[in-house]
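User: quick one, sequence for these tokens?
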């Protein structure tokens, strides 16, 4: 398989990721709250990177009953995650592409945190995620918004993000609502980030 620009990007950025990203990635606590985890939830984070969100997720799981699967296509990011989480608790790490993975299990909670806007075929990634959502399950997307209230800074921020393989202008949340009609969408910090929270109805599948 040929390596993508994003995988190449993370060859270097994996080394500095944990030390730098706390400055720009926000809203994780809100996103994890929205997942409404139970102690026995089966959780999938798609584009989990180095596992920065794992402490927040694991804090809500019973290590004996809950499960956390982290999926990412960057071997370099996963190597960091594996170093920290590979042998600890109920964590499984998988190298796979979000747009075409197929797992035998279904999940009660699925999280995309700052990964969907880096995936050119994000519609396929959302479709794959919904296909892996258990009845009654919750899918949360946390990602950069469109910076609506950032005035002249907005185009600069969007342009800088594009240079870093992030496309902010696609209708991510609106599309999720077409897949899961019970989707709520909120934007925060003047459009810096958005949260889309979709639920799969318990009875309809
Ligand atoms: C900005 S990082 C976010 C990591 C983590 N979710 C966080 O909040 O710190 C984006 C991650 O998405 C992953 N990613 C991008 N495109 C992907 C794809 N098609 N399949 C799987 N992972 C992908 C990247 O490798 C990277 O680790």
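Assistant:
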């Amino acid at each position: 398989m040929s390596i993508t620009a994003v995988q190449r990007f993370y060859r270097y950025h994996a080394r500095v990721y944990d030390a730098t990203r706390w400055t720009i990635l926000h809203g994780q606590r809100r996103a994890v709250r929205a997942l409404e985890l139970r102690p026995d939830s089966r959780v999938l984070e798609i584009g989990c990177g180095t596992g920065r969100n794992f402490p927040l997720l694991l804090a809500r799981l019973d290590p004996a009953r809950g499960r956390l699967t982290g999926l990412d296509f960057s071997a370099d990011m996963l190597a960091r995650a594996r170093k920290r989480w590979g042998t600890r608790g109920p964590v499984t790490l998988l190298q796979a592409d979000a747009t075409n993975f197929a797992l035998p299990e279904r999940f009660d909670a699925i999280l995309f945190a700052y990964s969907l806007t880096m995936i050119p075929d994000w519609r396929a990634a959302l479709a794959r995620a919904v296909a892996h959502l258990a009845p009654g399950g919750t899918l949360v997307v946390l990602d950069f918004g469109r910076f609506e209230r950032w005035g002249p800074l907005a185009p600069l921020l969007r342009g800088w993000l594009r240079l870093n393989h992030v496309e902010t202008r696609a209708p991510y949340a609106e599309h999720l609502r077409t897949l899961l009609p019970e989707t709520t969408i909120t934007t925060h910090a003047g459009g810096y980030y958005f949260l889309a929270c979709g639920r799969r109805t318990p009875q309809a599948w």
